[in-house]
């Protein structure tokens, strides 16, 4: 009887070892996060500044402003009775590029414009009385680093007939763009092999 009890004890001990005690080392795969540096490209506008903009100026006044800001004037200027918008910009970027100056100029009936000279807010009827005519376009300026350019909009000017008058003007500068290389830190995942110990029973059943 004693031998039977001992034998049962040994079997139970072996069963416990097989079922509960980790004895066998096995490999398994896991996904882990890690930081990496990623290179990407971003489109950015070139840096610039608008030096000056004016319209309807005399030749002396235009020459004075050019001397004050330090830019060259073209051989041919647009002067009365023609009308144009002058826009002066400087490329502050290290890259060269073409800048677009988009402009809109409007003329009006001279008598109506003179009558409405001091009006701040006009009625639809008053706007209709002005009989406005619009002129739009764009001028391209290719500028090196630190170069100053002058856009005359339009280059030949707008002829102002005796019954017409300059009324309003607006413009927008669209700078050239460049691709800039940048870097950023991103989180990625990779597979790594790890090791663990399992019981003999788990090993035989699953590996």
Structure description:
The chain has 207 residues and is α+β, with helices and mostly antiparallel strands. It has a domain at 47-175. It is 24% helix and 54% strand. It is built from five helices and eight strands. It has helices spanning 2-20, 59-69, 110-115, 124-130, 200-206, and strands at residues 22-45, 48-55, 82-91, 97-109, 133-143, 148-159, 164-174, 177-199. The strands form three sheets. The protein has a three-stranded antiparallel β-sheet with strand order 2-3-6, with no helix packed on it. The longest helix is centred in the N-terminal third of the chain and has 19 residues, at 2-20. The radius of gyration is 40 Å and the shape is elongated. The two termini are 39 Å apart. The mean pLDDT is 85.
Structure keywords:
3-stranded antiparallel beta sheet, 54% strand, 8 strands, 207 residues, elongated, alpha+beta
Quickly describe the structure:
This protein is of the alpha+beta class and about 210 residues long. The chain is built from five helices and eight strands.
Percent of residues in helices? 10-25%
Q: How many β-strands, per DSSP?
A: 8
Number of helices: 5
Strand order, main sheet: write it out.
2-3-6
Portion of residues in beta strands equals over 45%
H-E order: HEEHEEHHEEEEH
């Amino acid at each position: 009887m004693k031998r039977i009890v001992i034998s049962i004890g040994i079997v139970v001990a072996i069963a416990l070892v097989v079922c509960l005690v980790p004895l066998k080392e096995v490999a398994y795969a896991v996904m882990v996060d890690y930081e990496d540096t990623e290179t990407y490209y971003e489109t950015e506008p070139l840096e610039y500044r608008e030096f000056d903009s004016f319209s309807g100026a005399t030749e002396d006044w235009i020459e004075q402003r050019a001397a004050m800001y330090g830019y060259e004037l073209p051989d041919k200027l647009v002067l009365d009775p023609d009308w144009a918008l002058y826009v002066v910009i400087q490329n502050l970027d290290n890259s060269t590029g073409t800048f677009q100056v988009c402009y809109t100029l409007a003329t009006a009936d001279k008598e109506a414009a003179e009558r409405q000279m001091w009006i701040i807010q006009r009625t639809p009827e008053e706007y209709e009385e002005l009989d406005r005519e619009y002129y739009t376009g764009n001028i391209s300026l290719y500028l090196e680093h630190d170069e100053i350019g002058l856009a005359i909009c339009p280059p030949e000017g707008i002829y102002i007939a005796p019954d017409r008058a300059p009324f309003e003007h607006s413009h927008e500068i669209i700078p050239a763009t460049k691709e800039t290389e940048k870097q950023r830190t991103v989180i990625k995942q990779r597979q790594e092999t790890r090791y663990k110990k399992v019981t003999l029973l788990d090993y035989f059943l699953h590996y």
